[in-house]
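User: Here's a protein and a ligand (4'-deoxy-4'-aminopyridoxal-5'-phosphate). What would the complex look like?
Assistant: Let me lay out the input and then the predicted complex.
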Amino acid sequence: MNKITNHLPTAELQAIDAAHHMHPFTADGELKQKGARVITSAKGIWLKDSEGEQVLDAMAGLWCVNIGYGRDELADVAARQMRELPYYNTFFQTTHVPAIALAQKLAELAPGDLNHVFYANGGSDANDTNIRMVRTYWAEKGQPEREVIISRWNAYHGSTIGGTSLGGMKGMHGQGSLPIPGIEFIDQPNWYAEGGDTDPEAFGLERAQQLEAKIKEIGPEKVAAFIGEPVQGAGGVIVAPDGYWAEIQRICRKYDILLIVDEVITGFGRTGNWFGSQTLDIKPDIMTVAKGLSSGYVPIGASIVSDKVADVLAATEFNHGYTYSGHPVACAVALENLRILQEEGIVDRVREDTAPYLAEKWHSLADHPFVGETKIVGMMASLALTPDKSKRAPFAADTGTVGYITRERCFANNLIMRHVGDRMIISPPLVITRAEIDTLIERARKSLDEAYEIVKEKGLL
Ligand code: PMP
């Protein structure tokens, strides 16, 4: 058997990949015909593929490579930590320096009294922790019937049984008989798609007030928590209208319901502050983090927990944890990543310079005949494709047909943009420069022009 290296021809790598590798969120049969794009290396915001093409990664991988690719400091820290202590757990009254140091750092960065860290391997299993944690919290408080967690349709909270259940993706629920019992949903604050003629703020308020109606329907004595992303990411970078989060928080407080804010995407500078909760003035009881915590260099996630919740849990043994909770190499790399984000002023630069610059350029795409709206918060942005911008109309073709065509044009123009249905989304590395933003926008406009022509030719307008 050949040793598999970057030097093998692309077609050979693709054939072996198709024969043995099952891809996440992919129709493997279809991919087999085409062959996957093989990425061989990366630096800054640029990927290199096996054909030698330089690709602008406007998604930072899966919204995670906040400091950009190719930082040697992280590799050095990982190697050093592997030599010193490659593994030990934090079960059974043991700890180690990387887990201690990262927990202290997260407590310092996280707002309010979010002072306690329970480690996971990523966002999905951190949300699984949250399900068990909030139910245990209420059981310890003598209210074990408080089990229900309310989430939102079109939310994304992961792909484990728990994460999929918390998420509001119907296509995911359909595979594996989910959600698990005790998860309920309200509608998302997606004004563009669902707001009709209602004024956006009135619509946002209506959607937030569905939470109160749902709590009353279930019975407040049975509700444990509400979970939401500050800005829905995988749902299409949906930004709630002003006033939405204030109303959600008013309702949570009124019924003494815990607020879990899923910051897996919005954490670590993505919105121009350390956390989306700061950008949107949200005060969570528990925060889910992952992705940007290590800039994706190693898998790690966590629940950052308030004094209020941690104090109650401390009274019992929480029978929960993963072999790799607080993995020393992952913690050491995450800590170094946070040092770089902080010492190089990357979060401040996003807020003060590059995010406003990207916003101006992104909104300039709104003049395109194909674009119904442009939205942006910090370094995450979306635009809606439409056949008729005056009506925010959807396409007659199946949702996602036009989005897919547009994504394929981006791909051909060496720009990674994703499509969610017929919305195009970006979430570039936070280190992207003004000049690189110009390139991103040029390629996006070219791809939109080309997709528009194809869609016209196919009679999809
Ligand atoms: N929550 C949110 C908001 C996410 O965007 C994601 C991943 N896209 C997850 C949870 C799941 O994280 P992971 O893939 O690391 O399990």
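Summary: Residues 62, 122-124, 127, 156-158, 163, 229, 233-234, 262, 264-265, 290, 301 surround 4'-deoxy-4'-aminopyridoxal-5'-phosphate (CB under 6 Å).
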